[in-house]
Design goal:
This protein has about 180 residues and is mainly alpha-helical. The chain is built from eight helices and no strands.
């Protein structure tokens, strides 16, 4: 709980920094599982995990391949142990199941506010990696990643530039052009 006390001092009577952005409930739930990290890093990883979970949950199915890919990304980005990465994924998935429509926008904008442009690019690339874990990015998954990109502040051109790397996995481009015609 110490991390929560440090992050949310205003609840305890301490004034927060003027530029502080209050974490969403979803990010706060993941934060509680990441107490071993410094508060700022825990908040970053919690928001990152939530948004990755949002991408994974776009098709309403969290596959073992998506979980494995999320774990790899969180271990690399967050420097997390396997167990802590798995906890972050579990909490992110649970929060997406329960509060996705409500918290998606808030948590993604929060990540935008606490990250650099390069970190946001890395998150968007990670979202594509998660949706492509089964070697296929469905139209529903692609639409969700596009929403994430917009909420992170990417222009359409920037989004398309990042998406290009994943064209071979996009369902809408598989078997294009149609054979026999």
């Amino acid at each position: 709980m110490e991390i929560i006390r440090r992050l949310f001092g205003k609840v305890l009577g301490d004034a927060p920094p003027k530029d502080a952005v209050a974490p969403s409930d979803s990010v706060r739930a993941i934060l509680q599982k990441l107490e071993e990290l410094p508060p700022e890093r825990a908040r970053f990883v919690a928001a990152f995990a939530y948004v990755l979970g949002r991408a994974a949950h776009a098709d309403q199915d969290l596959s073992d391949l998506e979980i494995k890919r999320m774990k790899e990304i969180l271990m690399r980005i967050g420097g997390l142990s396997t167990d802590v990465a798995k906890l972050a994924i579990d909490v992110a998935h649970h929060r997406n199941d329960m509060f996705g429509a409500t918290d998606n926008f808030v948590a993604t904008r929060e990540f935008r506010d606490i990250s650099t442009v390069e970190e946001r690019r890395e998150l968007l690339d990670g979202a594509f990696a998660i949706t492509a874990a089964d070697d296929s990015i469905s139209a529903v998954e692609e639409a969700e990643v596009r929403k994430i990109a917009a909420e992170l502040g990417f222009s359409d051109l920037e989004y398309l530039g990042i998406r290009t790397k994943w064209n071979d996995k996009r369902d809408v481009l598989k078997n294009w052009p149609p054979s026999g015609g």
